[in-house]
Design goal:
81 residues, mainly alpha, 3 helices, 0% strand
């Protein structure tokens, strides 16, 4: 036999008792379990300023990297024939 406790106050809509009274115990339980185990999306980290291309660095007011030194072309290969 189930013993019911009666109180003078009625559950308001924001309390867990009010939510269970409105929707039922099992839907509230399943919604709570779903919210507990739901995977959260992680925010992507902003790009590091060192990895941005030069034209984007100029757009946001950063100085572009120094131009890389060009290597001299290799001398042509000499064949023994």
């Amino acid at each position: 036999m189930i013993y019911l406790i009666h109180s003078d106050r009625t559950p308001n809509a924001d309390s867990i008792d009010g939510i269970i009274a409105r929707h039922g115990a099992f839907p509230v339980l399943f919604a709570a379990l779903k919210a507990l185990f739901k995977l959260r999306k992680r925010r992507q980290r902003p790009a590091d300023a060192a990895t941005l291309p030069d034209h984007l660095k100029r757009d946001i007011g950063l100085p572009p990297e120094a131009a890389h030194a060009r290597r001299d072309a290799l001398p042509p290969l000499r064949t023994p024939f």
